[in-house]
Design goal:
elongated, 3 domains, Rossmann fold, 215 residues, 9 helices, alpha/beta, two-stranded antiparallel sheet
């Protein structure tokens, strides 16, 4: 089952400061979570992200996983160069109720990283289940080329308008079925469509919220 984790406001811990850690940090950095890196040494990319305030870097030599529960993480990435230590970190993460990912062993990870093709706010994920990151990256490039011709700025804007409408509907429409009908009306509304195509996304969002009174 492929899922999109909602990590906004959550705590992620990355153990290790090398290139693999940097790759995982880049994947996490757009998700709105706080990222703490624990490592004795950090590669230039990790140092740069720490200097820019994108991550908190704790410099310490990691000899075991006893510190993991104290950090109260929601997600832990084990990216050290020691396979046995990565296994220990992943096990500690699970005992602490967190999802665990090992950069050296996809079979001992709770999720697989996707190669993500992005067009505006819309993302398409390519998975090989951790079997071949190289194939995933190659397919991501091809997928981006393909979908750029199919997904327009209006599609991306509509997705954001729908997000605002969904938030407004939660408190105004008590049933899930009612909310679905409302969101379908927003998607099909000619005025919302006209405003989006005119580049007036904020006005389209206001129109969508105003439609709550018409339900």
């Amino acid at each position: 089952m492929i899922v999109d984790l909602r990590l906004a406001g959550r705590r992620a811990v990355v153990v290790g400061g090398g290139r693999q850690a940097a790759r995982r940090i880049r994947a996490l950095s757009g998700e709105g979570c706080s990222i703490t890196v624990v490592a004795a040494e950090a590669c230039p990319a990790v140092q740069k992200m720490a200097g820019a305030g994108r991550v908190r870097l704790i410099r310490r030599r990691v000899r075991g996983a006893g510190f993991i529960p104290r950090m109260r993480p929601h997600l832990v990435v084990a990216a050290t160069g020691d396979g046995a230590l990565n296994a220990e970190i992943a096990a500690a993460a699970r005992r602490a109720g967190a999802l665990a990912y090992r950069s050296d062993d996809a079979s001992d990870s709770d999720f697989a990283n996707a190669a993500v093709a992005r067009v505006g706010s819309i993302r398409a994920a390519i998975f090989t289940g951790g079997r071949s990151p190289a194939v995933s990256r190659r397919l991501r490039i091809r997928a981006e080329r393909a979908i750029r011709g199919e997904i327009t700025g209006a599609d991306s804007a509509m997705a954001q308008v729908q997000e605002a409408a969904r938030r407004a509907a939660r408190g105004a429409i008590p049933t899930q079925a009612g909310r679905r009908r409302y969101l379908r009306r927003v998607e099909e509304d000619p005025e919302v469509d006209r405003l989006i195509r005119a580049g007036r996304q904020a006005a389209a969002g206001r129109r969508a919220v105003a439609m709550l009174g018409e339900t």
